[in-house]
Amino acid sequence: MNAVGRQGQRSGASAVHHQRQYSDNLLDSSSSNGRWLQSNGLQHLHSSNTSLPPLQDYGYYGGGQGSRMYRNAPRNFNGGSEFFTEPSSPPVNSRPSGQRKNGEDPDSPSGFSPGLLDLLSFDTELLPEVGFFLLDIEQVDEEFLEQLDRPKANKKSNLTSSLPFAHLIVPRIRQLLALQQLSLLGYEELKYSYMIPLPGQYDAPSLYRSVPGRNFDDSESYLANSKQTGRVRGVPDNNLMKSYAADKEKASNVAKIKVVVRKRPLNKKELAKNEDDIITIESRSSSLTVHETKLKVDLTEYVEKHEFVFDAVLNEEVSNDEVYRETVEPIVPIIFQRTKATCFAYGQTGSGKTYTMKPLPLKASRDILRLMHHTYRNQGFQLFFSFFEIYGGKLFDLLSDRKKLCMREDGKQQVCIVGLQEYKVSDVETIQELIEKGNATRSTGITGANEESSRSHAILQLAIKRSADGSESKPPRVVGKLSFIDLAGSERGADTTDNDKQTRMEGAEINKSLLALKECIRALDNDQGHIPFRGSKLTEVLRDSFVGDSRTVMISCISPTSGSCEHTLNTLRYADRVKSLSKGNNSKKDTLSSTLNLKESTTLPLSSVFPPGPTYEDGIADSWPEHTDREEFDVSEEFQEPEKPLWKKTGKVEAYGISNLEDKVRRANGQTKWKDPPKFDTKNLHTDDDLNTLLKEEEDLVSAHRRQVEETMDIVREEMNLLVEADQPGNQLDDYISRLNAILSQKAAGILQLQNRLAHFQRRLKEHNVLVSSDC
Ligand SMILES: Nc1ncnc2c1ncn2[C@@H]1O[C@H](COP(=O)(O)OP(=O)(O)OP(=O)(O)O)[C@@H](O)[C@H]1O
């Protein structure tokens, strides 16, 4: 049984800059704390804490001795170039007079230097200075609390004096424990380092954890305010309750999946060629419109608009800092709460994936280290760094001269990458060097051509580990992980038709991994028991990021020009599917998103078997059917399984309900936007327009069918995974089969609708032909 408490306090004068100093060791045997423990018969607490590392041993931001400065000006997580250094204790001998080493001189509290102290060294004379204390509540039990509260709670105790403020602190600790029991506070949250505001000192809502948009040093500004105003205010009990509940809610508010789109600016070449920017962005509504130029049957041009809504849409003026704030920053704190998070960039070659991804790990590392050395100080967290790539289905270590790596699964189905170098890192400079080294290896890999980077997935992982007992004597275990993936260019998945076999194979592998990634994310967000991680090397490697509490941020990168229109639409459709098919898609914005995207996908008016002909926006009713839309991902050979065997196998297709029918087929459709559906009237048909309409419908039909095929492909792959898993002991084959049946029922309904649609089209074409021949 032991507890470690520390108090933080604000330095004296300056509101802008202030200095912090830390005790050399929380439980220095010569400290007042040590003496207090001894005098109170609690020396066992003392000795059990000697495993704690000395506080000055950070090696953070270059390390070194001497007092380091915090800037107490507003600052956000990413910090950037901002001045932020961690304090450390100056050598004892060099301490200025007037500053007291913790516990050295208990009789002169007025000379007490600001810093973190052991809870047990509280001194009543420090009352105006005391801010909060940190508590390793895992170690706290009722016996301990009683001992702290001895005068009231345990008259028979051998303690000779009570811990100062025990009467204030103990009820707080009990309150926290009660919150945990009420599930308002997770055990993990409670377990590690809590800063508990001292009653009567602050009415600050939550000092113990940073939240986005707030300084890590907010606690200090609270302290500063409190001191400046000289106010001593009570903290209503329910305020604390509320703050914990609110914080918990905040953590759970970090969306499981967040899809952000980033548009890059026109580059020099594009500007020189006077290329059009075809993408308009409405940041406030997180929407964007792609203006696609098409040709009518008479070869006149018209513009078709495709609208999309995502969680955030970033225009070409948005900086990398803002991208970080929008994407990764909110998930950094929760990886200390046993969360595995993945951030990946998706998009065609040259759309800005690397440009976007490159700065993120460094910014995240900075924040992680800041949390480790500040909020989670002395909790035994360690940061590990690794960087590897997947190229042609094989793994290469980017920090070991592209050494080939093997992936293995242990008995507990934990994936480990044999031979992968993992570096323990404690400062940003080292991380920066490692990132640069990995990037250089990546871009000069194999052929040395930059093109190759577009054909590999680069995975940079930041793992937070901690040994079970918080000490370094045992090997640390992963607490949370943040993976950054710079994916292969999405258009590469379509290289399966290339003449070169190598290129085809690469394309198939990329295709497979992009599909598998999408599937895993969807399965994750739907809390499906089965995550189809075996779909590709990429998802297998990321397996541990797909189990437990996970978060995914997808950044879709798009190029602005008309030459990239097709790829841009494919990227946006991929992103849309990742987002809109998810169960968690229930925020206000998301509802808007699905509504809008649904509106866009009304190409097949399912409510009618004989749907009216469409009118396009901008008064453009007709279009020549341009079959320019390539498969979003060409079907790789191994996915080209026929549907039939599946249907036969289950034998239940006819019995399936047609629920979610419209939804399913709408999803399977393209993004073509339609105005109010006009009435179809054969009498008013005008030859060219009608032909355009019909051909446009045919195009839509083909596109719907294409999506059906893609879905079938997914199902086949899913089924293959299921069968593989079913062979393993303990798996429930029945569950798998019924889930498969459910998927197939939706599929069957979709195909049925497609058939109806086809019949309708054939009828209309016939009518059209009759009309044309009578005109002649
Ligand atoms: N938002 C942006 N602002 C300014 N320049 C950008 C932006 N996004 C991309 N660029 C520039 O565009 C070029 C291509 O970007 P980048 O290399 O990141 O593309 P990519 O998608 O990673 O390509 P690949 O898949 O081939 O690796 C680079 O020169 C990059 O500096």
Automatic annotation (TrEMBL):
InterPro entries: Kinesin-like_fam, Kinesin_motor_CS, Kinesin_motor_dom, Kinesin_motor_dom_sf, P-loop_NTPase. Residues 1-31, 71-114 are annotated as: Disordered. GO terms for biological process: microtubule depolymerization; microtubule-based movement; regulation of cell wall organization or biogenesis. The keyword Nucleotide-binding applies. GO terms for molecular function: ATP binding; microtubule binding; microtubule motor activity. One of its GO terms (cellular component) is microtubule. Residues 91-100 have a biased composition (Polar residues). CDD domains: KISc_KIF2_like. Coiled coil: none annotated. Keywords: ATP-binding, Microtubule, Motor protein, Nucleotide-binding. Gene3D superfamilies: Kinesin motor domain. It comes from the Eukaryota. ATP binds at residues 347-354. The keyword ATP-binding applies. Residues 256-581 form the Kinesin motor domain. Belongs to the TRAFAC class myosin-kinesin ATPase superfamily. Kinesin family. KIN-13 subfamily. This is Kinesin-like protein. It comes from Camellia sinensis var. sinensis (China tea).
